[in-house]
Amino acid sequence: MAQEDVFKKIVSHCKEYGFVFPSSDIYDGLGAVYDYGQNGVELKNNIKQYWWKSMVLLHDNIVGIDAAVFMHPTVWKASGHVDAFNDPLIDNRDSKKRYRADVLIEDQIGKYEEKIDKEVVKGRKRFKEAFDEAQFLATNGRVLELKEKRDALHARYAKAMKAMDLNELRQIILDEEIVCPISGTRNWTEVRQFNLMFKTEVGSTADGASTIYLRPETAQGIFVNYLNVQKTGRMKLPFGIAQIGKAFRNEIVARQFIFRMREFEQMEMQFFVKPGTEMEWFRQWKQTRMAWHLALGFGAENYRFHDHEKLAHYANAATDIEFHMPFGFKEVEGIHSRTDFDLKQHAKYSGKKIEYFDPENNQSYTPYVIETSIGVDRMFLSIMCHSYEEEQLEGGDVRTVLHLPAALAPVKLAVLPLVKKDGLPEKAQEIMQDLKFHFNCKYEEKDTIGKRYRRQDAIGTPYCITVDHDTLQDNTVTLRDRDTMEQHRVNISDLRSIIEDKVSLTSLLKKI
Ligand code: GAP
Hints:
Layout: H1 3-16, E1 20-22, E2 34-36, H2 38-57, E3 62-64, H3 74-79, H4 81-84, E4 86-91, E5 98-100, H5 101-127, H6 133-139, H7 141-163, H8 166-175, E6 192-195, E7 199-202, E8 210-213, H9 219-223, H10 226-232, E9 239-248, E10 263-273, H11 278-294, E11 303-307, E12 317-325, E13 328-339, H12 341-350, E14 356-358, E15 363-365, E16 368-375, H13 376-387, E17 388-392, E18 398-402, E19 413-417, H14 424-435, E20 441-443, H15 449-459, E21 463-467, H16 469-474, E22 476-481, E23 487-491, H17 492-503, H18 505-509
Parallel strand pairs: 3-9, 19-20, 19-21
Antiparallel strand pairs: 1-2, 4-5, 4-6, 7-8, 9-10, 10-16, 11-12, 12-13, 13-16, 14-15, 17-18, 21-22, 22-23
Bound molecules: glycyl-adenosine-5'-phosphate.
The site of glycyl-adenosine-5'-phosphate (GAP) has 19 residues, from strand 10, strand 13, strand 16 and helix 13.
């Protein structure tokens, strides 16, 4: 099945099984805004817990905060977001559609990549067993020509972005003969800068309302609380402040479901370090964060680092952790060395002294910062994409199963009476009442046992137990494993110990 079709199936699965709904669905949705349903919210909360505990529980020098979404407007002047948080926009005069100029060019680079991939497929077909991919890529004339075009475009694009040369971005679009996907024409406007922050007002207009912004990143809530936390927590460098919260960006190109949203959630940690040690910490946090991802068991081949060529206005080094989504390797997390930019800017704009007194050398200085920043929604999407499978069963049947990491699954155990009579529902409820205090259980009695198993597979429930007539005699149940579909008989009294260890966050945290 084409990857595009797989992705479409995942999107509809998310809706059908109560993971993600379009926002205001009965009004046909709102662009790039989504709601999480009954299963989605559980998965999302588990992701957040996994991150939060890995930061705050596993590091005795990291603490958490929860800052407000609304912040003093000067925060965004100081942080540079008012002046520099822009995307280059271009409109097509015929379709009246608006695009990000950088995205149009990146897509064009992607097209060269696709053409190279197609040549490889053709080569493999032609040369069969004798095909040597590395040699083919290094010598085939058509591939070399495409690579040259791709590299030249990439170099020109990177230079234009670095200088934010809007005329050159437009010229690249014209020279590459990029057409609007809707109108098919090249009737482009000039490229303009567009600020991504949402504006609103606090106070009524009568008493002089003032314009404020919905935060485009949670990080600034941490920077403005640096002194509060350092002093009240008597924190010593190096130390970190973690936060999970909503962020808002007026994204122009809202694509790929929950990958790029206008309202989303971030899990960010700012790690304050002594100046001069930041590159060492940057390397260390790259490894620590990658280990967090790898502990989920999705395979190292599905992750890669992508170092930034164009650095944000506050950074002296930056990398992305990219995950292999059905639409290619895409950024899930950013790790940035933010220097002392933010704290210095807030000191300048607020007039407050924002420094650290180092008792080791009796000196005061502004700490440097390493930031780890991951989108909850992108993490959610990567987990769904990797877990979704349409499994071919013996006999030609297909079952749709989510191989979610057990610790993140919305429901850990489904308790199913074989039939709705003979005291089986009562016995199943009794088991449920005991286990529900230890992990998330769901009771289901409607439909055949086979249908109920399939429903649980589709939401990723790692275990099901079936209560049957033997249960009433010997206090045993059938325990079924989601992934292997194997079933075996276990004592009710052993259920908690068998399941708890496998589904607990603790066991996942220990793998990091
Ligand atoms: N404080 C740094 C910062 O915000 P970023 O690279 O712009 O850096 C960090 O964002 C992460 O937030 C990204 O790696 C991504 O996971 C998530 N993110 C950013 N924009 C998003 C959007 N429009 N929709 C969903 N997630 C987004």
